[in-house]
Amino acid sequence: MAYVSVPKDLSTVKTKVVLNLTKRQLICFSAALAVGLPIFFLTKDSVGTSASSLLMIFSMLPLFMFAIYEKHGQPLEVILRHYIEVRFLNPKQRPYKTDNFYAVLMRQDKLDKEVQHIVEQRKTISPKANKGRTAEN
């Protein structure tokens, strides 16, 4: 009887296009072939077969890595982008800054006291001002 293992998390399953390869792998392998073969054939007469095959392998290796390597569900270009952002683009020292809630409460309390003071001043001044205004109306 045939046995087929089915993963529990179906989000990790990738659709295969041709020869049990994903579309990403096909594109990267084709690009590696397009880069590697001309390098081999152009350099084999001048440097020898062994050296030209090593040049071909090292020129194709990055494209193979982009096709195959994946860590925590992220492809290599995403990992490299994150590494470059952290290593070179973001500042080295990132101080820890907080919005102190106690300071916010203290500012609000100070503003409330100012408003209360203004209201109390108006109450002491307003009976005199209101008498003059009510007579005019």
**Uncertain runs with pLDDT below 50, 5 residues or more?**
none
Give the domain tally. Answer: 2
Which structural class do you get from the secondary structure elements?
mainly alpha
Beta-strand portion reads: under 5%
Give me the Rg, rounded: 36 Å
How far apart are the first and last residues' alpha carbons, in Å?
A: 102 Å
Largest sheet: 2 strands, antiparallel
What's the total number of strands? 2
Helix content: 55-70%
**Strand line-up of the largest beta sheet:** 1-2
The run of helices and strands is HHEEHH
How many helices? The count is 4
Indicate the mean pLDDT.
Answer: 86
Q: What sort of overall outline do the alpha carbons produce when their principal axes are compared?
A: elongated
Organism: Veillonella absiana
Keywords: Membrane, Transmembrane, Transmembrane helix
Protein name: PrgI family protein
InterPro entries: Uncharacterised_PrgI (IPR024414)
Structure, described:
The chain is mainly α and 137 residues long. It folds into two domains: 14-89, no CATH class; 98-137. 69% of the residues lie in helices and 3% in strands. The chain has helices at 23-47, 49-68, 76-89, 101-136, and strands at 70-71, 74-75. Strands 1-2 form a two-stranded antiparallel sheet. A hairpin with a 2-residue loop joins strand 1 and strand 2 (74-75). Helix 1 (23-47) runs antiparallel to helix 2. It is elongated and about 110 Å long.
